[in-house]
Amino acid sequence: MPRAYPPIPHDRKTHALSPSVIESVAGFTAGVVATLAVHPFDVLKTRLQLKTSQAQWGNSFRILRQITRDEGSYAALYRGLMPNMVGNSISWALYFLWYRNLKDAIQVYRGPNSNLTSLDYFASSGASGILTAIFTNPIWVIKTRMLSSGRNAPGAYKSMSHGIREIMRTEGPKGFWRGLVPSLFGISHGAVQFAAYEQLKNRRGGQLEGGKSELSNWDYLLLSGASKIFAGSITYPYQVVRVRLQTYDAERTYKGTGDAVKQIWKKEGVKGFYKGLVPNVVRVLPSTCVTFLVYENTKFYLPMWYGEEAAKYDV
Questions:
Q1: Residues 85-94: pLDDT tens digits?
Q2: Whole-model pTM?
Q3: Sign of CA dihedral 259, 260, 261, 263
């Protein structure tokens, strides 16, 4: 049965939230919740991606023990939480805002009775990802550097504001956009994921009794997880290259994106491009599922919480 909504007084309908506000709030909320849930896995993944010796490949438990033993306590697993939370919440808010508006623009262009194709979803997601990456790259540079070392390590940033000051002092404005090129290549990951997610949602909606398009929370969990695994299996290497280019000494170690790729290939082989993959899978699956579950539910219930008639905003 479709969800039933109470009638709304006429004077409250004039204060309806716009779809853009709903998308932004839903994305922001999803980013905050997901970051709090899986941040320690992000710390582990970053440390593994920075390992250059073959002997340390995949030794996740040893690194976790080292972090908690050498850096004070289990609180060390939440180092860099603030830039990670700020980055994820802002990124998802901007991403879903632009994604919604770009999809709407394509829908208007194609006509109200036409269905969007996988290419339409891919283009909307890709363009949204490019805009988001450009706006948020400075946050990810600081986050990567904070997660890559303990708080008391030589030269380590003490806080997000300290990182901003140090980058400006030592590298200038260009330092905030290190790793942007591989990040832009990584846009393909989000584009592939969203194209798969949209088509899986559409297919699942068509399978429901009576052709209803309303999905359950279990549907969102399974579909978001499946689309993430599919996209991640194709595009993971760019994340390793990006992290290498965003570390403290990247300017002295690598001449650019191409040089980083060559050095990883020469010194570490194919495995070098997949370091941190296991904890990344462990991290991104819960993170993705939580993100999409919180996003879809916030997007659905926010109009009701606000006091207006709940409307359907298709992803």
A1: 888 899 999 9
A2: 0.71
A3: positive
